[in-house]
Each structure stands twice: as C-alpha cells, then as structure tokens.
C-alpha cells in the first residue's frame, strides 16, 4: 500500500508530485531544493544546509531522524566547494552515513538553484 505525503511545514510541491511516498518500510522523498527560501540565492553549501533542514523536518514528522537515511542522491551544479559539501553532509549525518551519490549536473529547474537532494528513509511499517 502506498501513502502519498505532503508536509504542511514545507513549501508546497512546485509541480505534479508530493513531498514523499511511503511504501512498506521506506519513505521515498522527492527532490528537495532551496526554491522560494532565503537560501535560494546562496552558495552551494548554504542551499545544501537548507535542504537537509527540510529532510530533518520530514524525518521529524515521521517520528525518526536523519540516522534513518538509507540512500541519498545529491545533485549539484558546482563542485568547486567539494570540501564544504562534505563538511555539511557530515554535520547532518552525525556519523550515520547513508549510501550516497554526488552528481554534477548542468543545471536545475531554476537558474539560482545549485542543489537538489532525493532521499530514501527507513520507517516503521
């Protein structure tokens, strides 16, 4: 059984999708960005930090934490501050590292955006 989820404390989805879909013991989180936030025009690290605060809110809404991240895909338009990206990820993971991909892309749906993150979290069935 699938449960489609939209979280009221996050910006509404900007298209025909939901924030996440729960299936069994997994929560599949749609790509999150800093779109519409003060971080939208910030650096890659500022945007990444904002996105992870959104992931933390989703986890909190589900009664879990970021330690339950199973897999993340981080899309960035600029890898110039790779060390800053790694520090930001380590800060949010708190030693609970998920499987992860970091992919450089030519661009995202809005020109100011530098980061998009998709995630899978483990949740209780």
Task: List the SSEs and their pairings.
Layout: E1 2-5, E2 20-23, E3 26-32, H1 44-61, E4 69-76, H2 82-93, E5 99-104, E6 115-122
Helix pairs in contact: 1-2
Question: Can you put this structure into words, describing what you see?
Answer:
InterPro entries: RutC-like_sf, YjgF/YER057c/UK114. 24% of the residues lie in helices and 30% in strands. It is α+β, with helices and mostly antiparallel strands. It has one domain: 2-Layer Sandwich (60s Ribosomal Protein L30, Chain: A), CATH 3.30.1330. It has a six-stranded mixed β-sheet with strand order 1-2-3-6-4-5, covered by helices on one side. Helix 1 (44-61) runs parallel beside helix 2. The longest helix has 18 residues, at 44-61. The model has no long low-confidence stretch (mean pLDDT 96).
Oligomer type? single chain
| Shape descriptor | globular
Q: Would you tell me the overall average pLDDT?
A: 96
Beta strand %? 25-35%
Organism: Marilutibacter maris
GO molecular function: deaminase activity
GO cellular component, one term: cytosol
Family: Belongs to the RutC family.
């Amino acid at each position: 059984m699938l449960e489609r989820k939209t979280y009221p404390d996050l910006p509404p989805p900007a298209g025909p999708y939901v924030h996440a879909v729960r299936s069994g013991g997994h929560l599949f989180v749609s790509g999150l960005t800093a779109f519409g936030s003060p971080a939208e025009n910030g650096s890659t690290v500022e945007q990444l930090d904002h996105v992870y605060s959104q992931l933390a809110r989703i986890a909190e809404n589900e009664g879990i934490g970021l330690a339950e991240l199973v897999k993340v895909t981080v899309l960035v338009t600029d890898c110039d501050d790779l060390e800053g990206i790694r520090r930001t990820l380590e800060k949010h993971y708190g030693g609970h590292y998920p499987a992860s991909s970091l992919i450089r892309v030519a661009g995202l749906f809005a020109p100011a955006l530098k980061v998009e993150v998709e995630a899978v979290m483990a949740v209780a069935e």
